[in-house]
Recover the amino acids of this structure.
């Protein structure tokens, strides 16, 4: 770059953490090296059009400025690659915020009071629907229909638990769905992968576990398209305000795809989004052809106008959760509350044969499998399916893989062989990985899978100490969220939030990944030997997530030639004590060279 082709923007006076992995370098201005390593350096960033055109010393880059160059002083601030979230639900999250949301309530009284106030304030609604009740607020971890009847007696009510793996309904909803009597004088059979919680007399208690939530949810009217679009745009604003410039929506039904396509066509989709198309486990394999059709429609339109929505992943719910439900698939049984061994090993939502067939079919079509797997058996069964799919496809001349070692010039990927150089580039994602058997840590790397981690969950909240550890026992509890062990084994970690289950703020996730406790909490750290370094945690939300989203050729690192997708933080978090990471805030977000968010 010379003064004859001056940059449009110069970010000067701050520090830059490029997030380039290991100690590799790229090329800056006139052959200068792009700063890398595990610490930020004082540097400026030049932007021309959509892309970064130089990273280097302030004085060198200031000399390139022209009369029209915008010079932005970021003294005292830190430039990072834009964060990318590999497991998030922004339409759902913003939609929940537009309805009843009790996630912020700290106790039972607050939860019940919020529900009562919402119902009284909205008498016009046919249903009372919402989100966020927390298991540890209720005796035994579960509410009752009678509690909800007292708050909403006049119409059906349906409220998701904070993790989305259970719901709470009142008597009106139970009657509408026929959960006590399906017309035959008997209650209906439980669906595969879920159950209706019942009392000693066989009546529904008001709690629906896992896939049983659908027995009532199918009766809840869908929001109009205009409302869904508003929810997407509100979710996008919230994510951009937290420095998130790209994400993977982890459960895209046709209704969500319609909204993404509309926002993209209208030029309102600012971020780049990978859609994980939802696999409905109760339906058949005819879905594969339908998913191919849905992807092909987007690809055909993208030939005329590049799309920022890419439906290239498929979400596979394979097991449940530990806390509250004890439905996550475990190799050995859970313990009962008294410490004795139970006969419950949790649930796998697919048989071994069906999962093998599904994963092979998706990988053969070039889809990225995106697994929900929380228990150690759930994680192992997903890895087994990937391993067998690779073998089957290789035997017929199809060899899916992952990122190549030379995917980003000048950056050493340094991870296990995600790609064998000959086949499709699918990069299977295993999300959550709460309990990982030590024997499977190296397999996550060796099979070329990517871990979508939710580090904010790796803390000692009551849901951990009261509803998880007692039922796992001491040994398995220590296998939870083994991020440091996975990184040491060569697994590629990518950051995710699962918003609205927890905040989407990557800085809070980074804080917990490094400290193993929530910001502001004085509780003990959760197995601190599994903490990441700050550099590892930041790379997880930037470069690692870019790889997971197939975007490392255009983002994830602050380097010339890549898109100017950037997050500017109000301080250098590397220069402060780790317990203060969570105090940091995003002050500006840039997408493709445009400042799309500025903090007040």
């Amino acid at each position: 770059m010379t003064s004859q082709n001056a940059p449009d923007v110069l970010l000067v006076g701050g520090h830059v953490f490029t997030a380039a992995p290991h100690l590799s370098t790229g090329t800056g201005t006139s052959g200068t090296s792009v700063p890398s390593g595990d610490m930020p350096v004082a540097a400026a960033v030049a932007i021309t059009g959509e892309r970064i055109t130089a990273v280097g010393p302030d004085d060198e880059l200031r000399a390139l400025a022209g009369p029209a160059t915008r010079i932005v002083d970021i003294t005292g601030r830190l430039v990072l690659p834009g964060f990318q979230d590999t497991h998030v639900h922004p339409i759902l999250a913003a939609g929940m915020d537009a309805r009843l949301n009790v996630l912020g309530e700290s106790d039972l009284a607050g939860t019940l009071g919020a529900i009562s106030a919402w119902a009284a304030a909205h008498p016009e609604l046919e249903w009372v629907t919402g989100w966020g009740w927390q298991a540890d607020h209720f005796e035994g971890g579960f509410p009752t229909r009678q509690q909800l009847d007292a708050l909403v007696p006049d119409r059906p009510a349906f409220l998701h638990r904070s993790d989305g793996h259970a719901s709470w309904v009142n008597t009106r909803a139970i009657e509408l769905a026929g959960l006590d009597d399906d017309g035959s004088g008997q209650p209906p059979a439980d669906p595969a992968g879920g159950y209706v919680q019942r009392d000693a007399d066989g009546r529904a208690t008001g709690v629906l576990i896992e896939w049983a939530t659908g027995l009532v949810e199918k009766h809840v009217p869908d929001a109009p398209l205009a409302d869904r679009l508003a929810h997407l745009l509100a979710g996008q604003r919230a994510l951009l305000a937290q420095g998130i410039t790209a994400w993977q929506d982890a459960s895209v039904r046709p209704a969500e795809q319609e909204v993404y396509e509309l926002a993209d066509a209208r030029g309102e989709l600012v971020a780049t989004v990978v859609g994980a198309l939802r696999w409905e486990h109760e339906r058949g394999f005819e879905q594969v052809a339908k998913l191919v059709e849905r992807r092909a429609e987007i690809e055909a339109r993208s030939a005329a106008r590049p799309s920022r929505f890419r439906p290239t992943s498929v979400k596979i719910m394979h097991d449940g959760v530990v806390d509250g439900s004890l439905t996550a698939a475990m190799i050995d049984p859970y313990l009962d509350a008294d410490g004795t061994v139970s006969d419950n090993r949790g649930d796998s939502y697919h048989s071994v044969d069906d999962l093998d067939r599904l994963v092979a079919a998706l990988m053969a079509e070039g889809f990225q499998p995106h697994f929900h797997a929380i228990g150690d058996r759930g994680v192992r069964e997903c890895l087994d399916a990937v391993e067998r799919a690779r073998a089957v496809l290789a035997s017929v001349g199809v060899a899916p893989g992952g990122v190549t070692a030379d995917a980003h010039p000048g950056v050493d990927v340094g991870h296990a062989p995600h790609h064998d150089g000959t086949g499709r580039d699918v990069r299977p994602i295993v999300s959550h990985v709460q309990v990982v058997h030590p024997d499977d840590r190296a397999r996550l790397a060796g099979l070329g899978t990517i871990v979508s981690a939710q580090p904010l969950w790796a803390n000692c909240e009551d849901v951990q100490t009261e509803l998880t550890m007692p039922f796992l026992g001491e040994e398995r509890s220590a296998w939870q969220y083994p991020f440091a062990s996975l990184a040491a084994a060569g697994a590629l970690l990518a950051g995710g939030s699962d918003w609205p289950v927890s905040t989407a703020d990557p800085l809070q996730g980074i804080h917990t990944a490094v400290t193993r406790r929530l910001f502001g909490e004085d509780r003990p750290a959760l197995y601190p030997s599994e903490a990441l370094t700050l550099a590892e945690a930041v790379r997880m939300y930037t470069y690692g997530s870019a790889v997971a989203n197939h975007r490392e050729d255009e983002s994830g690192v602050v380097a010339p030639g890549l898109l100017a997708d950037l997050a500017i933080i109000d301080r250098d978090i590397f220069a402060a004590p780790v317990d203060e990471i969570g105090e940091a805030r995003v002050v500006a977000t840039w997408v493709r060279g445009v400042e799309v968010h500025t903090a007040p």
